[in-house]
Amino acid sequence: MIRNSRPFLVVETGQPVPSMRRHGGFAHWIRTAAGLARGEVEVVNVQAGDAPPAHGEHAGVIVSGSGAMVSDREAWSERTADWLRDAAHGGAPVFGICYGHQLLAHALGGEVADNPRGLEMGTVDLELHPAAGEDPLFTGLPARIQAQATHLQSVIRPPEGAIVLASSTLDDRHAFRWGESAWGVQFHPEFSADHMRGYVRARAANLERGGQDAAAIHAAVRAAPDARRVLRRFVRRARRHA
Q1: Residue 64: which of 32, 92, 29 has the closest Cα?
Q2: What number of other Cβ atoms are within 10 A of residue 171's Cβ?
Q3: For the purposes of burial, counting CB atoms within 10 Å of the CB of 11, is it exposed (0-12), middle (13-18) or buried (19 or more)?
Q4: Which listed residue (12, 40, 98, 129) is catalytic?
Q5: What percent of the chain has pLDDT over 90?
Q6: Is 174 a catalytic residue?
Q7: Marked catalytic residue, from 129, 151, 188, 195
Q8: CB-based contact 222:193 (threshold 8 Å)
Q9: Within 13 A of 192's CA, how many CA atoms are on the CB side?
Q10: Which of 35, 74, 111, 178 could join 157 in a cystine, given CB atoms 3.0 to 4.6 angstroms apart?
Q11: Which of 75, 189, 178, 173 is CA-nearest to residue 123?
């Protein structure tokens, strides 16, 4: 297969929890999970103040997770939302992960706020909606898949025209597509089971304060290959349409 010469852009909106940074940053985790070589990825750290490049220079855009909150409307986040809005309206392939999912929804007119059902963390069951059967990234997957998740905020109201593709017990909008080439997923397809266990350990006190059993959540962590398959399908689709 001939690969498009244009690289993918990873927009870093944050970094892993300190205890997990020995494994690299989110851009490294995403690149590895997506099956991309080092030379196939460029990284822009918008949280550190870097400006995203001009639109149209990349095969696709992947927006990382973050410990920040979209509802705080920080200046760097709002600038990135404006950039994402233009990218999505211009037809660029966009894939938002966790914070990136929420930021994309916000950029396109949706609403993001604290999840009224509380902290969601661990390997969670996702129910795919009927529309997922016709979606390029989700078609053919089982009606229920597992995914890694860790978030306090959620997309409370999706953007107008968005198609919700998946939900969990604690989040009704775990994935959506807007238009033909923009997706947001609340889950973390780039997380391995080891990454997820590390996050559960790091957030154990938060889980316990919320009345959840951190040890049980840690023990229930499993690999989530279908969730990772969604990310890889995005990469393949973006290459084909570049």
Answers
A1: 29
A2: 22
A3: buried
A4: 98
A5: 97
A6: no
A7: 188
A8: yes
A9: 9
A10: 111
A11: 189
Residue 98 bears catalytic tag: yes
CB of 8 closer than 8 Å to CB of 59: yes
Per-residue confidence (pLDDT) for residue 2, from 0 to 100: 41
Positive or negative CA dihedral for 34, 144, 211, 96?
Answer: positive
Q: CB-based contacts of 99: which residues, under 8 Å, 6+ apart?
A: 13, 14, 63, 64, 65, 66, 68, 70
Residues 6+ apart with CB under 8 A from 65: 13, 14, 26, 97, 98, 99, 100, 188
Locate all alpha helices (DSSP H) within the chain, ordered by sequence. Answer: 26-34, 75-89, 99-107, 193-202, 204-209, 214-219, 225-241
The residue from 174, 190, 195, 218 that is catalytic is: 190
- Confidence category of residue 36, pLDDT binned at 50, 70, 90: very high
Both tokens of residue 4? 């498009």
Helix/strand/coil for 227: helix
Banded pLDDT at 1 (limits 50, 70, 90): very low
- Sheet containing 120-128: order of strands: 41-45, 8-12, 60-63, 94-97, 182-185, 175-178, 163-167, 120-128, 144-151
CA 146 to chain centre: 15
DSSP letter assigned to residue 179: T
Other C-beta atoms lying within 10 Å of the C-beta of residue 172: 17
